[in-house]
Amino acid sequence: MIKSFRYLTAVLLLAGAAWGQQGPARWTEDKAQSWYATEPWLVGSNYMPTYAANQLEMWQADTFNAKRIDTELRWGQKLGMNTMRVFLDDLLWEQDQAGFTQRINTFLDICKKHKIKPVFVFFDSCWDPNPQLGQQKPPVPGVHNSRWVQSPGAKALGDPAQYPRLKAYVQGVIKAFGNDDRVLAWDMWNEPDNPNTSSYGKEEPANKVELIVALLPQTFEWAREAGATQPLTSGVWEGDWSDPSKLSPVAKIQLDQSDVVSFHCYGPPAEFEAKMKSLRQYRRPLICTEYMARGVNSTFQGTMPIAKASKVAVINWGFVQGKTQTNLPWDSWQQPYVNRAPAVWFHDIFLPNGKPYRPAEVAFIKKETKGH
Question: Mean pLDDT throughout 278-284?
Fold first, then answer.
């Protein structure tokens, strides 16, 4: 354990030294706060259209459905939402750079129509570490997010020869949209060190954290080199953030490199408030990029008023019930909800036909977003 910790620390120091020698600098605190002062209170959802079980199915040419996206984002606009967090994937760039770029542009046109500025996510360490292009498998019955895929997959993460391809992906997207006022921000990596213990843990690289510690700082460097004018971030998601000396190596990179600080909180109001306060010491705008899991007492009614009072941006998980099946709880990986319904939806706001799961909840969201 001690040897492993020393190795991680050494890698982190080397990564930090390399960062200090090259590339544009992270935003200053003043620049970050000035940027945020021009934005309204930001409210949105993590968005995946009902027709898609994962990022690949959302974006690939054979399944991309602009009409459906337009319909769903109109529901978001009616709620008063002004942002959405949307996942990209490195394999989409490898598959069809020109087509993927055009589909992102189409998506941004739809967002602008509905007064929504998305946060795009480049990389993600959650769920299936073995992504495959092409037709995606149907969802596993009764299982939460059963077909979501990681980007990069485990093979690419463990193969430095593929890193130039990952760099080309980040920089290609940034060069196309890094000065585009339709884009709110770039989330470089979602939950980078998530071990996926309850799902695909046995298929994960044994040295996943070490690989992430070395690669994560490079992703920020790539985006800045390519000329991103929007802020960069990567959200801390577990651990104690109140004391910088207690940060994990990955969390330290995330907080040291992010222009604006983002975080996840699937906990009750008191936990959200404590996490929010613990991150104030970093003196940057705060964006909660994941919250709202009814089954563990993370709710709109509990979280939104606290965030609104401090102008902390909030982006809940799940918008419309669909092939992600994220209305089902996390424990569905152990006990699938087949021929039975959960006591309460875990995530998501709308049924596929646009009707709210809880009308009173939708009314509350509209009340909170009114005038912002």
Answer: 97
Average pLDDT, the chain: 94
**Percent of the chain at pLDDT above 70?**
94
Q: Is residue 355 part of a domain?
A: yes
**Percent helix / strand / coil, the chain, rounded to 5:** 45, 10, 45
Alpha carbon distance 170, 179 (integer Å): 14
**Distance between CA 312 and CA 316 in Å, rounded?**
13
List Cα–Cα distances, 151 to 90, 167, 191, 218, in angstroms. Answer: 6, 13, 11, 15
> Which among 203, 48, 265 has a CA at the least distance from the CA of 139?
48
Give per-residue pLDDT as tens, 99-126.
999 999 999 999 999 999 999 999 999 9
Within 10 Å of residue 175's Cβ, how many Cβ atoms?
13
Distance CA 131, CA 95 (A): 13
Count of structural domains within the chain: 1
Taking only the tens place, the pLDDT of each residue in 222-241 is 999 999 999 999 999 999 99
The verdict on pTM exceeding 0.90 is yes
* CATH number of the domain bearing residue 48: 3.20.20.80
Q: Which of 330, 360, 333 is nearest to 346 (CA)?
A: 330
DSSP-derived letter for residue 232 is E
C-alpha 139, offset from chain centre? 21
- Which domain range does residue 251 map to? 40-369
* Residue 7 pLDDT class (50, 70, 90 cuts): very low
- Identify whether 33 is part of a domain: no
Give the orientation angle of helix 163-177 with respect to helix 208-225, to 10 degrees: 40
Cβ neighbourhood burial of 63 (10 Å; 0-12, 13-18, 19+): middle
Residues 6+ apart with CB under 8 A from 9: 249
CB 247 within 8 A of CB 275: no
**β-pair partners for 317:** 46
**Alpha-carbon gap, residue 176 to 104, rounded angstroms:** 10
For residue 5, tell me if it sits in a domain: no
Q: Tokens standing for 362? A: 């939708």
- Rounded distance, CA 252 to CA 246, Å? 9
Q: Distance (Å, rounded) from C-alpha 90 to C-alpha 337?
A: 32
| 16 located within any domain | no
